[in-house]
């Protein structure tokens, strides 16, 4: 085992989602060996499931000139901006101003197709990038990074091993303790980049502690314990732990309606023009922030208590279907959506869709303030008009809170001093999104702060030689 100061020192990366993979890519590019530890059987974490895309602005793929990413993010962060204001603004500036480079890095250096751009809730411009083909963006990005890393002899990924402790001396973090696949407790020495994701799947632990009101909600996250306590044990400060994003549209699978684990109905379906109906009526600007759309649903009585869920219809016309075809065909294949007609929707839906089509034609203003209609083209709806429909409900999706980091991805203590030898990136860290994350900004923060953490760790190792 090399000592923490030998030239052969390996950096330890905890978690193989997009934040960990981005950090490892920078380290490997600069010839620093990486030991990546992953608790899952397979790599990729929640990142591999991402289905709408990654934000970037301004980029060559965007159809409009976009200089509003920073201000949209601040607006979406909302009430959280009253505290840690300057700190948050620095992080938001870092993420939004690095977004163009992040997209270029993925496209140019890693060969990922991100040529298709959509608008999502809370954004004033289309800026969420995905590929033009069938491959979902989370899978496309994580598999490209993994493939490149796996081709390096100095990259080592160990799955089925769980980090249980961060080791530290008086002055710095010195490594981790973990349980390996065969159940043995092992120690690994070196600087540590923590990229272990959020706590949206920790229903009985951190979620119950910080948001007991969300008990019983289904989730898009696989069950797993949150890891922030491993970092607070070495002095890390926490922020925004109470801000948990409940995504308005998780599919209620007709084959397993009461499953607590839901498949996400990607926000891009609404971004490309889809609408939401509750008892046959629209009730919200479908492109408002996730917080507001969810709030409009949960202000009504749930249809069932456990899991706590509502019955909202997500409806697309043929224009929206064409634009989001790769997603919808996949959902139809999974039995989560079906091709149908308006006559099959809840009573009153025909009148509602007719009114909405008038709004899209510009004959009247939308009562909910929607101004972007994207690909909706149904002009004269009849009971026989074809629609694509799925039932959706709010789902616990993303945890905005986590450990406090600075713009160098260094983990900060309560006195704002950095913890030497420790960085964090991705959903395990907090502060970037405030009270509400914009769709597409999580993959982005993983790339931006993952790469920053990797670069900083390289400098740290060089400084130790
Ligand atoms: C269904 C779904 C769709 C989404 N779609 C989008 C989207 O389109 N755009 C977007 O921006 N965001 C999206 N998100 C959010 C985004 O995917 C995640 O927030 C982001 O990928 C988190 O990346 P990460 O690297 O921080 O963590 P993850 O990708 O979750 O990776 C963390 C890894 O750490 C491992 N780990 C945890 N604890 C330990 C431990 N103690 N020891 C070792 N390993 C550990 C986990 O097993 C996991 O593999 C989506 C999320 C979900 C669930």
From TrEMBL:
It holds the Pfam family FAD_binding_2. Its EC number is 1.3.1.6. It is an enzyme of class 1 (oxidoreductase). One of its GO terms (molecular function) is FMN binding. It catalyses: succinate + NAD(+) = fumarate + NADH + H(+). Keywords: FAD, Flavoprotein, Oxidoreductase. Binds 1 FAD per monomer. InterPro entries: FAD-dep_OxRdtase_2_FAD-bd, FAD-oxidoreductase_2, FAD/NAD-bd_sf, Flavocytochrome_c, Succ_DH/fumarate_Rdtase_cat_sf. Residues 11-443 form the FAD-dependent oxidoreductase 2 FAD-binding domain. The keyword Amino-acid biosynthesis does not apply. Its cofactor is FAD. Belongs to the FAD-dependent oxidoreductase 2 family. FRD/SDH subfamily. Irreversibly catalyzes the reduction of fumarate to succinate. This is Fumarate reductase.
